[in-house]
Write a structure and sequence with these properties.
Two copies of one chain form a homodimer. Chain A has 425 residues and is of the alpha/beta class. Chain A has 15 helices and 16 strands. The first copy, chain A, has two domains: 251 residues, Aldehyde Dehydrogenase, Chain A, domain 1, CATH 3.40.605.10; 145 residues, Aldehyde Dehydrogenase, Chain A, domain 2, CATH 3.40.309.10. Chain A is globular. Strand 16 of chain A pairs parallel with strand 13 of chain B. Chains A, B: Pathway: Amino-acid biosynthesis; L-proline biosynthesis; L-glutamate 5-semialdehyde from L-glutamate: step 2/2.
Chain lengths: 425, 425
Amino acid sequence: MLAQPTTPVETELFARCERARGAADRLAETTRETRDAALQAMGEALIAKAAVILEANALDVERETAAGMSAPLVDRLRLTEERIRALVDSLEVVRALEDPVGRVRRGSTLPNGLRLRQVTVPLGVIACVYEARPNVTVDIVALALKSGNAVLLRGGSAARETNTVLIEVLRQAVAESGVDADAVVGLDDLGRDGVQALFGARGHVDLLIPRGGRELIRRVTEEARVPVIATGEGNVHIVLDRGADEAQAVEILLNAKTQRTGVCNAAETLLVLDGAEAAPAALRALVDAGVTLHADERARELVAASERVVPATEEDWETEYLNMDLAVRTVDSLEEAIAHIRRYSTGHTEAILTDSTRNAELFQRRVDSAAVVVNASTRFTDGGQFGLGAEVGISTDRLHARGPMGVDELTTTKWLVTGDGHVRP
Amino acid sequence: MLAQPTTPVETELFARCERARGAADRLAETTRETRDAALQAMGEALIAKAAVILEANALDVERETAAGMSAPLVDRLRLTEERIRALVDSLEVVRALEDPVGRVRRGSTLPNGLRLRQVTVPLGVIACVYEARPNVTVDIVALALKSGNAVLLRGGSAARETNTVLIEVLRQAVAESGVDADAVVGLDDLGRDGVQALFGARGHVDLLIPRGGRELIRRVTEEARVPVIATGEGNVHIVLDRGADEAQAVEILLNAKTQRTGVCNAAETLLVLDGAEAAPAALRALVDAGVTLHADERARELVAASERVVPATEEDWETEYLNMDLAVRTVDSLEEAIAHIRRYSTGHTEAILTDSTRNAELFQRRVDSAAVVVNASTRFTDGGQFGLGAEVGISTDRLHARGPMGVDELTTTKWLVTGDGHVRP
């Protein structure tokens, strides 16, 4: 049931998919040794080719700066020698992970003697559509190859020079270590039509992972005819309970909102329990740090008037700002906070700051998000922080993978059944 | 991002979904004790109300028999006291399973002291569209409630009287044991428009499981805007190797093809290694048992001419007969058999009959299906046989669940993160 091409771009895309399929078939036959060698070769090549990578990156940075890209986005786009070394470090972490393929998840011998084993196997051909952070290219390739998958990459157009060079460097490196170059396939040259063609690549692609904002996720979930796991949309809430420690609350809120604003695990809405003792200090600290509060009336009474304190509207509850803005709403009860979260959350990460074990337990039980955090920053929802080495994305879907997707999330299983002439009575 | 209704049927369906959502929220708060009590109450109610269930079933059987339904399909439709007792037995097996909810899948304390636990939680609201076997209704409700989910049921129209009574009996039973009646919601009265409305019920339904033939699966995968796991399409292959034991091969092939023909794990194509010693006896036994062989030229030479041996066409390789027909193709190598399977299989179950450990290993490694069987009947790919108590369906998809779907496959996970003022450096 392979989709048939109807446009030249589909013809080209499906041909690349079939080459990736061949590479995936051969990858599925490799041992950990071969796949780990490919990761090591990738790391060595990134160091050896750092100059040419940085040169290409400088072109992207120059073009986008001239085109008026904001400073934080340019910073995300920029590679440096230090950042390349950090990429190599995370390659090493992924390489050192246990082999995710060939693990026996369940197994038993049935009363009739039939032997059952459920073993992990690669998913096959994975496609990722992601934003303009070139380091993501390396992370995704590392996770895909470690788990025995071929991968198709469509990066942000702002990073096109960098990604073109990176993909070429990685293809050469894996080929030299005995893995097909076509296990790593770039799609940037196919443009937006290439993304559209991916949506219809049924049978050619086993999993499409869009990593990005609401508009990309909406398009993919509406239009894709291939299996999809949506990642990266984070309308993240923090609840400030009565009795919460003031110093901790201030520190966690500043970290969650301001440490890095353009990321999916940054806080976007603060829900303040009416009467929470730490609220005034927390709101003041946020304003002092440069955060603009979109606050309801009761919250505005807790903080000195300022151009950085504005009235909240309904739209604020729905907004993933990805900048130095924060919605603030006052609630009368934890139940009301949970109801707000159920209505507006994207299911990524929510946190509570509380000194009550009972409220912490209630919150973790009732809030239905990929990560539910007590007394810590929401910024921890991250494959690297969780010890996965890196992440393909952070799933906000419920099927197959939820939260940071590492190598285990890029496998599926099959049942191996072995008998000796067994028939069903 | 709840889909908004645009037709009266959608308005009614989405309203039922929201009632099911409320029931699911409350179910997620229940302990195993409550959910097990609901399963026990279901079993008792099925026994107590057997007469009224059988009466409704007699109406379905009578109407469909008059309408010309084939004898095997009428047999699938028919309930008897014995079949009701068997249903209650499988309810008991499901009830005795370990609680699939609240299990810690992974967990660790990070070097910084942050505590991580990945725990299983119910999926939420599940919808099933299935064929005219009323026992499936009971199996699905049992698995859904055991795993803390609410369930929407759309059965085959041929079983409508039976399903209406069954669902009413089950709703009453669970309500008396403290679970919301709306954890079990019938959709048969909404007709085909109700199925179409389900496809668009984004946000209202967490998982749609179509269980049935190629046409249903094709429609769902083309049209559904809700997460889907396709189940039940089984173009099942058996490879007969050289050196395979003749008596075993005959017995397994007869079992896989003829024991029950209308099921997804029955064999549909036999791939004979050229020169396989057991082939003549196996083909003869199949013909003698009433099987019509659609055989290629070399295979036809192995068996006496008969009206039950006809030439195979390309179409035969693609056909899931679900009757007493079997495609037979001769291959020169195991590689050729695997290539045929890759091209034509639906990814359900494939088996090899062999005396070679090397070929058995190669087959299990290279064939990429939900179940890969050595020297046993393909009929074992079944939730009951695998010890899952029952099954919601047999997934031929790769994401989330593959093969028989029991209670574990109806859960997802969330990460619980607990700190003491942790912030990200």
